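Weekly puzzle thread! Below is a chain. First person to post its structure in token form gets bragging rights.
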Amino acid sequence: MPFRFSSKSIPLAFAVLVVLAYGLLVTRTGFYWDDWPFVWGAHFAGPESFLRSFLRVRPFLGPIFWLTTGLLPETPLAWQVFALVIRFSLTLAAWWALRSIWPDRQRQTLVAALVFLVYPGYSQHWVAFTHINQELIPLLFYILSFGATGWAFHAPARSRPRTLIALLLLALGVFPTEYFVTLEPLRFLFLFAMLGAHPLLPRAWQALKLWLPYIAVWLLNAVWLFFYYRSGLYANYDLEVLGDVQASGLDLLTGFFTASAEAVIKAGFVAYAQILHLVMEAFPTPSALLTLALIAVTFALLTFYLAHLSAFNESVLPASASALDRWALSAILIGLLGIVLGRIPSWAAGLPLTLQSSFDRFNVSMMLAASLLAAGIIELLVRNARWRLVFVSLLVALGVGQQFYNANIFRRDWERQREIYWQLAWRIPALEPGTVLFTDTLEIDYETDYSLTAPVNWLYAPDLNSLQLPYLVFGVDMRPERLALDPNTPIEFPFRPAHFSGNTSQSIAFLAPVHGCLRILSPGDQNAYQNLSERMQQAIALSNPNLIPATTASDSTIRFSGSKSTPVSVFGPEPARGWCYHYAKAELARQRADWGEIARLDAQAAQLGLTPADPLEWIPFIEAGAWRGEFDQAVLRTRQVAAERPFLRKALCAAWNRAGQQQPLPVGLLEELGCQ
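Winning reply:
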């Protein structure tokens, strides 16, 4: 007898796939997007603060945050590991729910669960703190509620207590968030499918009667939302529901059908093939090669496993081709309708559905339906058992590759974040409270100024014991409507659950270019940054580096290692002290006119073979050489910078003119630079 895996091995297979898809880089990913405000609130205001801060947004979501943040520490690793647990739990729940609805369709429900596990249209797994609490835990309850309905249906003698469990799970899934508020009609279709032996109209009537208790809970949530939104308590994002309220009914209907078709195409089909395009674009980078290798390994392992899995190759009950076709058509119909239903909340809020962006988080409400659609299409179109095995294995392997590719994006984002935090700490060992940090568009994928405000406050106020924020990061081009960049303009900024009060005249402007080091800017630096926006130029004119207290430039970084409240487990250990460390410390010394310290840093960088990626970063070393009378190297670097970046001539002139106030300069240099 050939070797066979039993159904008991399926959870272990799920666990292996979870690790392959989501866990290989778990130690190299961190906090992203809204994770930072949430984790900052958990640490400084306590888990109970979520009960208050969500009271005016999603009151039933607060208890979920309160529970999870009370159990887990505020470290990236803890939350990334918890995300693996939640992903595994969701897959088990989906598998159990679909088996409860179709107990005689072992292979088909397993295929749907496998696709659900790696569903490639949802790339936000690593924004763990946010999405576990806001969507994935409620989704877990909702899927379990669907399963409990099937559980009750197939055991009439126990239907009442099991239906009560399903109703409770429905309430836990639908009340905390609006993401799943339109999914409930799927339950009617599940009930309709389970009543397969009845004629059409009696079958629909019977399904409706069984659905009535769930409709009651669903309508109760709708009534709650209606009155809550109109009560004046609700204070969520400024979204214009259903777009232009003056639009005609025909326009709304056209928009709905267009959005529905787009959702079906993107969530139901394009999502599975996008990894091929992404890998070819990135080929032959290491991440692309590793992704292809992982796809191949997963395909081989899964093909072997499914070929020897009893549940994939045998049915509990013999089924005719017509019965299988009926199941496939039911799955396709439910999948298509489920995708459309899942798109309604985000469409009504006027939000786009874009793959491979933060907006594909809306696919979370379409994941189960899209997985059923895929399983139904495979069952209907792929008749040969061997080819079905190959197709399922390939589809799942592509999903694993897609998620690993996404993990690499988040790994790079986390590395970039840590570079910014450490360069801030090197350049600004301490900062006067009440300071706003102005910046341009941030060159990172999943963070905004709102996100960075939390880690900056953690860095510079690690022992804060109030909810009055000492610091604010403000993207001048991200929120132009929020603030006029005029001197002495008050700034009031809510930061749930805290608040920042400040003034534009107590500010520092900084840039964090991808190809270069973080820079603190001063009035007059506009000469070196003529390509910046008008608003950023205004912010530079307001910038006051004297808000950085006058400690010595050689002071070690104190914000990561000097406070027990700022653990390495949150920000990671200090990276190697490369060029940007030496540049940051040279700029700090330049601010204090400590030219000897810059000379020491210059010599140290040269000994290590370090040079800048951007010639602009030679300027503090040029100025130090000019002040110290070490003209040969300073002039050589000046000519090099002027040749590579002619627009920096004004900045070079300013540096040499400052030094010229103390001693004679090399003859003809200012004329050579075109200084006036």
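Puzzle host: Confirmed. Bonus trivia for everyone else. The radius of gyration is 30 Å.
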